[in-house]
Amino acid sequence: MEFDTVIHSGQIATADWVTSGDIGIKDGRIVAIAETLPGGERRIDAGGRIVMPGGIEAHCHIAQESSSGIMTSDDYQSGSISAAFGGNSTIIPFAAQHRGQSLDDVISTYRTRAAKSVLDYAWHLIITDPTEKVLNDELPRAIQSGITSFKVFMTYDLMNIGDGGMLDILTIARNHGAITMVHAENNDMVKWMNRQLADRDLTAPRYHAISRPELAEAEAINRAIQLAKLADAPLFVVHVSTAAGAEIVRREKFAGAKLFAETCPQYMALTREALDKPEMDGAKFICSPPVRGAETQDALWHHVSQGTFESVSSDHAPYRADETGKFLNGADVPYTKIANGMPGIAARLPWLFSEGVVAGRITLEHFVALSATNAARTFGCTKKGRIAPGCDADIAIWNPEARRKVALEDQHDNMDYTPFEGLELTGIPEVVMNRGNIIVDHGALKASSGQGRFFKRAPVDLCGRSGVTLPEFDPRQNFGTDLRS
Ligand code: URP
Ligand code: ZN
Ligand code: ZN
């Protein structure tokens, strides 16, 4: 067979094994893997570097309004370019419903916004208004069209859908082969804390972290899991930021829940002291859930290395530290009026490689699983996130020894700061491909706006998890009413 491209002499890394060899690419797909492959219109010499699946960034906010209506600084062009420089071949941002909006309208809005992407993309639908029409007509049609995941919020007054709304969405997801992602923080606990702090005039950025206690996350994660178990539906807990939350996930997984989870670099790389920075600089580190203490970093690393989490995602939610973003409501406003979120789409994989693989906390195979393959499995990306014949040639070539210091001037997003400024990292993605097209080549962008494509996702693969059958769903015990039907 004649190949369009052969990547030769690489250390091919997958989620299962690492071996040296060549990869043949034809029409954007991987068609051969062998010790040596001849030919190829283009031959790329990997020179012993690591050749692995390009990352799948499955938690990022791009061209999306925040819970209070502030638009992210990145659109699909800058967001996807930044992702590519960070070793990603695929992005799955959110397409967010505003209350009263139809899902058809949401999808068509994001189709227009995403037209500039340089990488392939899909969306998770954020559901804030689960009306009868949304539940029974629009969501099933969205799933049918290949959008097989939703995100719901247990916090933020404008997004929180309540336990009943969650049960309804979980049930639709179960019945139609989708997965529900949840932002788990107890809204009333947070609002109560906000009132306590406001009564005492404690409104500086540092109080953001105090206003969202660890208990609020642990309580909500536990509740979300029980709701998912009642509905017998799969659940993905996003951005777990606490040891208590991770421990609940670990325990419930072991008990058999259809449960998936992620954490993010900021919860292991930063601590709440960052919010103390002078002159409102702490606002740059406001995100929800908030960054925690040093002991949490160690606990989350333990859970990453022991397999509690399927993925480490960025939760890239970029708002500039100016009047277009963090300070849209004023330069010196209480933390409750500052946009939540920080950038990190480019830092996620280099940070995880450096602090994970190079530091000896995880294996290279585990890195591949956490960065791409598990997201592909969990979210139904059947042709992505793997080095295997038939899969899209979404490939990254990494120099595992190159070192650099994170600096704003090297970023490609539309931001005026990086929370990871000054971190010394080892390992750089030098070449990034999407469907066989080179997107980034040794620091140079080779892609043009709009070359990424929307891809449909398959119904959710539960990775062999059978789930917990509660008495309510067991036809032998439920008083003759099979609630599944
Ligand atoms: O603070 C964050 N993470 N902002 C983005 C929205 C969300 O909650 O995921
Ligand atoms: Zn969230
Ligand atoms: Zn998020």
Molecular structure report:
The chain is an alpha/beta fold and 485 residues long. Helices cover 29% and strands 21% of the residues. It contains twelve helices and 18 strands. It has helices at residues 76-85, 103-114, 132-144, 162-176, 187-199, 206-211, 214-231, 243-255, 266-269, 294-306, 348-358, 364-378; strands spanning 5-13, 18-26, 29-34, 42-45, 50-53, 55-60, 88-96, 120-121, 124-126, 149-153, 179-183, 235-237, 259-263, 311-312, 395-405, 424-434, 437-441, 444-445. The strands form two sheets. Strands 1, 2, 3, 4, 5, 15, 16, 17 and 18 form a nine-stranded mixed β-sheet that branches. Strand 9 (124-126), helix 3 and strand 10 form a beta-alpha-beta unit. Helix 3 packs parallel to helix 4 (162-176). The longest helix has 18 residues, at 214-231. The radius of gyration is 22 Å and the shape is globular. It starts with a strand and ends in a 40-residue tail after the last strand. The mean pLDDT is 95. The structure holds N-(aminocarbonyl)-beta-alanine and zinc ion (2 copies). N-(aminocarbonyl)-beta-alanine is lined by residues 61, 183, 287-288, 315, 317, 340-341. The site of one zinc ion has 3 residues, from loops.
